[in-house]
Every structure is written in structure tokens, then in C-alpha cells.
Fold:
Amino acid sequence: MSSGKILVAQGGGPTAVINQSLVGVVLEARRFGEVRRVYGARHGVRGIVDEDFVDLTQETSHNLELVGATPSSALGSTRDKPDRAYCHEIFKVLRAHEIEHFFYIGGNDSSDTVRIVSEEARAANYPLRAIHIPKTIDNDLVGSDHTPGFPSAARFVAQAFAGANLDNAALPGIYVGVVMGRHAGFLTAASALGKKFPEDGPHLIYLPERVFEIDRFIADVKATYDRLGRCVVAVSEGIHDAAGVPMLARLAKDLERDAHGNVQLSGSGALADLLCEEIKQKLKIKRVRGDTFGYLQRSFIGCVSDVDAREAREVGEKAVQFALWGDRDGSVAIQRTGFYSADYALLPLEAVAGRTRTMEDALIAPSGTDVTDAFRMYLRPLLGSGMPDAYRLRGAVVPKIGR
Amino acid sequence: MSSGKILVAQGGGPTAVINQSLVGVVLEARRFGEVRRVYGARHGVRGIVDEDFVDLTQETSHNLELVGATPSSALGSTRDKPDRAYCHEIFKVLRAHEIEHFFYIGGNDSSDTVRIVSEEARAANYPLRAIHIPKTIDNDLVGSDHTPGFPSAARFVAQAFAGANLDNAALPGIYVGVVMGRHAGFLTAASALGKKFPEDGPHLIYLPERVFEIDRFIADVKATYDRLGRCVVAVSEGIHDAAGVPMLARLAKDLERDAHGNVQLSGSGALADLLCEEIKQKLKIKRVRGDTFGYLQRSFIGCVSDVDAREAREVGEKAVQFALWGDRDGSVAIQRTGFYSADYALLPLEAVAGRTRTMEDALIAPSGTDVTDAFRMYLRPLLGSGMPDAYRLRGAVVPKIGR
Structure:
């Protein structure tokens, strides 16, 4: 290691624990005598091209610990997706600083960024070690048991539905909660962990892994409403028809797309409102309410899984070890080793980059509107300790005498 | 007290701590030897007319404690507003059970219900003691320093904006968060408590206490965006034009009204979407996101102010003491006696019922889009202990050498 400088950056959507990974990199790197400086690029790869660096070596350990416990990306993020020309701009800067270690904390798109940068470095004969550190609330990285950030977002969703169910039981009607997740339904499925008693909601869960049919949806809601006098529904923002067209795209006039070509699904309450309108019109039910969890579910301060926080820290630490003790680029993955225990591996970037994991069939109930116990067993330990619990009155009935 | 039976019920929108008041009534009533049975009416006054009672005397103390810590109304709620005929139906049932003590936990509308029932009882010469126990996330009861349920909802809003600000700082753009509150802006104003550093959001706060002008709004957003490259906005669902017409009413086709004649403002993302669309069109800013906090802010499980929980319990306890040791009907009010300390008083029902408190001028900044330090001093102690805090990197800049 010539210069003793390493570089870390954060890309894509923030999570509640992404700074744990950043802090894991910085503190672990300090243990290596050959690391003299740890630089952070502001706003992801964009900050490399702009040469917008901060010297994280000057941060106190105590402040780093506090930043680690703070949600969202402390270095800032970006949605930029580098092409070859962009990568050459990156190299110019890395070369000037003699930076030979690059750590990028991000999801699907960011892992693809690391892959491109790694390949371009090899093609340019630049001695770069590039490591992808996983992070995404979508839980859609191939090769990982789960991804840091998902458990805390899942905890938010489970707690939100536990509360929404209680609210809906007090003032009965239909409640539709729309959850993030373009292709993978893991986060929407987490709503099932908010359920305790058999009559609790969510009574219906709609995932992007299954085709969404509006008539079937209305019939499902009606059946639950007829049985219980109320219905709580969890819906993924990514639900789509048999042709793969998102339900939201059917009604939105101007579709916003990001640099990766994805239609913008979040940041609007349109899908919930559309579904509520359908229910009102078709079923003539008066009290129909829709909430879109939006950005609350990924950045709410004060709803973190301790298991998630620990693992997010550890993937950062392991990334530094893989980089400085190892001899290849790659993507850090979490592998489950017990109930509950995890270990970390370095996967080839090609095995992860640009691929999308969706929910396995064994996790989805045959009805298509519920999860299996396998999913509950999978998710429960990730939610961490101190999950709030709902209790109810046992309700001894008083005999009627008044009328 | 002839029969030794007392009756308690819950009305209006649920809160995170309304069951603390219920449990306060039940456990305190058990200390009075003359109370033999504590009945709960399911779904508010509707449950009295339907004679749908549960015997809370049979609940274990331990289960009551657990229910107390569970959000939403454990007995169920209602939006029914009794008229004279409805009250006569109530009396028929109360008479049959020889119930002479009625405790109703609720907000504005519920206090009016208690007033009507109290007056009708007097007119019918029925010896009823009727006590209103306060609860509302809107904080809009006249005569109270604040209302149980508000502090926990305020804590949710503050935590949500603390997180939304961090998210918006990482991926800059415009963020609009819509908060509940028809006439009173207290809950929207609570967003200011999520702010720590001077550049943090919310940068603009729109309250129903001030006239909302869309052109002024766009200009405010533009000024902040020009200065910081981003803007976080808190908006009350109750914002209205100079004529008092809600902004939402200007765009909604079918206005839903409840039994109290109120236009339905919650349960739809329409207002946030409208405001975001205006910003996109007028300012040509690409990244504009809107969230509607909806039902999350009043029933989320696991976001409770310990101060709120304690006071909600105490208003229930005090209600029983006022009823059994006192000689008049009334509404229990929280009065501030220190920084921070509170005591309880019994106000005449006429002083509270049907009236609406809004934010005092001293709490709103002259700009009309921020709160004053007086508001921060007012709210901070109510949010309770263990508020999560946001930290940031100090960010020592690395000199540019690469280009």
C-alpha cells in the first residue's frame, strides 16, 4: 500500500444503519498500521469525480460512534450510475491521491457501480481494491441471507402495522398501507410480524412476486370485511399486472425515471388513494383509509433493530479486513449460521451486481396474500430485542338486562 | 352510590396512551370500597345504546398494565354524536344497570358528548355523575396546558422529521410532510423539535392558524432551495385559504363528512401530492417527495413519551377521585406547575365542550412559517426521556489536488 490512503462512500437510498457500516470501515481501518488516512467522498461516486473529500481520520472515535447510531447517509448519497467515461474521471482523482482502496456502501445499483469501477480499474491497469458493502431496505441482494438496513425498516413496518391494526379495530373500516419495494416484497411481507392474535391485521398482503388483479383484490377485501367487519391491507408499491406494468404506472400521467431507468414509485400517495377509491366505489364501504409509509420507513429516527445495527457495523469492519488481508475485489455478504447467528463472506462482484433477489416461493403462502411460518422464522430474529407487544382486554361480557 | 357500578368508554380518534387513562380509571376505582363493578362500553356511547358491556372488574391487574401500554382504544371507539333522543337511549340502559358514574375518554367532540349526557341526565332527574377524561393528539382542548396523546404523537412527528431531514440532506431535493391537525397546528409545529443544527429541516412550517397562500408557499420553498439546495417542509392537513376553505377541499371531488360535519382530511395522500405537483411545475425541481403521516402518527406502536404515558394514567385516576370524592360533573384538565411538573383540575364541562384551542400567537414566529423558542420550551419536556438525537460528521475538508 503506497499512499496509505483509503476511500469510502455511500450510494443509493439511505437506511437507518448505513452509518454503522461507514463507522465500521473507519474504526477498523485505524487498526491497520499501513492506513494513514481514511477519506470519505461526499454524495457517493459523484464526490469522487468532484474531488469532494472529507478526512475521516480527523473525526473523534466518540463522534464516529454517535454518527454510527444516526440514520441516513452521513457522507451524503447519489443516484449516479458511472459509465466508462465517468470511471476515467474517478481514476484521475484516485491516482492523484494515490488511493488504492475503495469501499462503496450501497444496494443493487451501487454493487453494479463497484463492478464497473473494478473492471475499469483492471482494464486501465490501475491497482485498485474495490469492495462493495451491502445496504438496502429492499433486501434484494443475491447471495446474502439478508441485507443491512432491511431489518430496521422491517421493524418499522411491523410496528406500524401493529399500531394500524389496533387503530382499525377501534374504528373499524378498511385500511390500506403502502410499503416500499419495487421488485422484492420482503419489506411489505414484514407487516405480517405486526400480527399477534388470529383476527389481527394485516389480513391481506400483496407482494410484487405475485400478479395483482384488481377484481381479485376487491373480492379478497370484501371477504375479510364480511367476516370481521374490517380489513387491514399491506400493499407493495411494486404491485403490477400480468404484463409487469406497475399499478401506479396505470394511473400516473408523468412518470419520473431515475438514472437507472426505474419509474419513481415512492414519494406520492397515489397508489394508496387509487386502491381506496376502488374499494369505496365497488364495495360501498364508507370508512376507507390509505397511508403511504414513504420515507418514514427508511429514515425514521429511533426505530432500529439492534441486530441490524451490529451487523451493519460488522460488514464495514469485515470489508476492511477482506481488502487489506485479501487479494480480490468483491461484495460482502451476510450468511446465517444459527438461530440466530451470522458470519460474513466476500462474494465475487459479478455474483451480486445488477441482480435482484425476490422472495422465494417457500416464504409466500399458497393464497398469495400471506406469508408462511418459514418467513416468520426468517425475519423474527432480525427485528432484534425489545420489540413492542400489543395486549388486549380479555373482555368478559356483561349480560344484557337494559332493554 | 346504590349499585356500586361505574361505566367507562372511549370516543374519537385513538392515541398511543388512551388505554393508560382507561387503566387509570379501573385500577383507581378498585381502591374505592363502594365500587363493586367497573364496566366498559365497547365503541364509546354506541356501546351504551347497544348495551355492549364488558366487565373490567374481571381483568387481572397485570393484563391491565399491559393493555395500558398498548396504543389505540382497547374498548373500541366511535364517531357518534348523541342528540337528546340518543341520550334517552343511553339513560334507559344506565338505569337498568343502576350505573350512576360515567367516564368518557375523548377529545373535543367527546367532551361535548359528556356535556349533552350530563345536561340530559339533569333534565331527566337521573342521578348521573359524568366526567370527561381528556385525550387528543390535536392538543386543542380549551383550559388544558396540553392533552394526553399529544406528546406521544408530537414525539413521532419530531422523530419523523429528524429522520426526513437526514434523508433529504443525503439525497437533496424538496420534502413535504403532511401532519394531522384540522384547526390546531400544535402537532405540525412539533416538527420543529426534530431540528438540531441551524441548516436542518423543517425549514418551513405551515399551520392552520395562518392563511395559506400557494404563491407565497412556492416563493418560500424557492428561497430555501436557492440557499441550501434542499428544503424540508411541514404542512398541516388543515391549511386553508383566506376564506377558510381547506386546501384539500379545493381539489377533492367527493368530500367525505363525519357525524360532526367535519370534512375528512386524513387517510389520503392528496394534499402532499398536490403541493409536490405545484413545486415541480412552478420551480422545475426534479426531486420532490411528499409523505402523509396519516394514521402512523397516532397509533404507531413503540413511540411513546413516558411523560405522556404517566399523565394519561393520572387523568384517569384523578377522574375517579373527582367523581367519588367530589360533587359535580366536569372535564379533567392538565395544568403546568413547573419545568417540568403538572397537576390536575376539574373544569366545568361548558368551559371545554365544543370549544377549540388553537396555537397562541406567542408560539408562532412572525414569519408565520416557524415556531418560537416559547413553543420549544413548551413542548420539549412533554416529549419525555430518551429522545433519539442526530449527530453528523464534522467534515474536515481534504484539499483538491487531483485535477
Summary: The radius of gyration of chain A is 23 Å. Chain A touches chain B through 87 residues (CB under 8 Å). The longest strand of chain A covers residues 330-338.
